[in-house]
Specification:
Low-confidence stretches: 8-36
Strand content: under 5%
Number of domains: 2
CATH architecture of the largest domain: Up-down Bundle
Shape: elongated
CATH topology of the largest domain: Fumarate Reductase Cytochrome B subunit
Order of helices and strands: HHEEHHHHHHHHHHHHHHH
Mean pLDDT: 75
Distance between the termini: 29 Å
């Protein structure tokens, strides 16, 4: 347990130690000297003031995507000209017809291969550029091998914690006949989980309305945004070769702000209420910071400030730090919460005659 409590502080020290050395070598040094990957595309002026910011075209990313579907440079470049249609001064309709038209075509996973007309800001981003030089090498390391390692540690660690939890259940210690009364236990456990997934669906929710609202604000965005953010899909496609459904960017913004607001209100509750403050340790504050940091850095990145690349790297680092440490800290509750709810529901259904009392739980 002492090891678990020290992990948030270890995470902070590790975060301060990054950015890491760029793993430089002959190949990496040569890559850093290549021409810039980012090409700024500014359509010809059709209005006195452009309706949208210029597009930063990431050449390497598009080249890799074409290679995956066995296509080459001729898709975009006219062999008889230097650059084909990837050049400045074309009309907006020309870019939309070619770029969006290509994005609508099925990719390797038979889904769309890029942002379409309904996702303007996925391409039109003010003050945005691709990381260059050492920052570019660090980005490819974080979005490549480090991402794969983080996801592996997260899912492997969570599966281990879940299996260990259920293997630790003993009917002689708990005095609950889990095996002999498994059908009743399964029914009661699933019912308990479902009731806790419904806002204000339990007596515990209704007894603490302020905490319930804070909890829902924090966890709704924390679950949905990382899973369905369009920007994350780009990295998944590049690194792992698959994508998931994406939510509209305005909805993602609202959910992220809700997550940050929920975390702030939970922090305020811990500081103001004496009965909560006395039970809160330094480790609990560290866990809260670790959980909300990817959302804060992600939202700042979304604002496209002059320090866009810095905040982008901070966002990726904090997100991967969260994935790596989650199985070994109290953040493992994102899986173990459902295990404990199942256990309590099974206990009630088997040991306390829940199946004979009907569907209502007294808690």
């Amino acid at each position: 347990m002492k090891i678990h409590r020290s992990l948030p502080f270890l995470a902070g020290a590790l975060a301060l130690a990054l950015p890491l050395p760029p793993l430089s070598g002959p190949k990496e040094a040569a890559a850093a000297e290549r021409p810039p990957d980012a090409i700024v595309l500014q359509p010809q002026a059709e209005h006195k003031k452009p309706e949208m910011p210029a597009v930063v075209f990431l050449h390497d990313r598009h080249s890799r995507a074409l290679a995956k579907v066995k296509k080459d440079c001729r898709v975009c470049h006219d062999p008889g000209r230097a650059f084909g249609f990837i050049e400045h001064g074309r009309s907006k309709d020309f870019y939309h017809r070619n770029c969006i038209g290509c994005h609508k075509k099925p990719g390797k996973d038979q889904g769309r291969s890029g942002p379409t007309a309904a996702q303007c800001r996925a391409c039109h981003s003010s003050k945005t550029s691709a990381p260059q030089g050492e920052a570019r090498m660090l980005y490819h390391f974080l979005a490549g091998p480090m991402l794969i390692l983080s996801i592996t540690v997260f899912f492997g660690g969570m599966i281990y914690r879940l299996v260990s939890y259920f293997r630790g259940l003993d009917w002689r210690l708990e005095r609950v006949a889990y095996t002999a009364r498994l059908p009743q236990g399964m029914k009661g456990g699933l019912h308990s989980i479902c009731k806790w997934l419904i806002p204000f669906g339990t007596r515990g929710w209704r007894a603490q309305p302020f905490f319930t609202v804070c909890f829902l604000l924090l966890h709704t965005g924390a679950v949905l945004t990382p899973a369905f953010l369009a920007g994350h899909n780009v990295i998944l496609q590049d690194t792992l070769g698959f994508t998931r459904p994406s939510m509209p960017q305005p909805l993602a913004d609202v959910l992220v702000l809700g997550t940050i607001a929920g975390a702030a209100l939970i922090l305020l509750r811990r500081l103001v209420l004496a009965e909560v403050r006395i039970l809160t340790t330094a480790s609990d504050y560290g866990i809260l910071v670790l959980a909300v940091l990817p959302f804060v850095t992600g939202f700042v990145t979304r604002l496209h400030t002059d320090l866009y690349n810095f905040w982008l790297l901070c966002h990726i680092i904090s997100g991967e730090l969260l994935l790596i440490l989650a199985p070994f800290t109290r953040l493992s509750h994102m899986v173990l919460h459902f295990a404990s709810r199942w256990q309590l529901g099974a206990d009630y259904a088997i040991k306390r005659g829940g199946s004979a009392r009907g569907p209502c739980f007294p808690w």
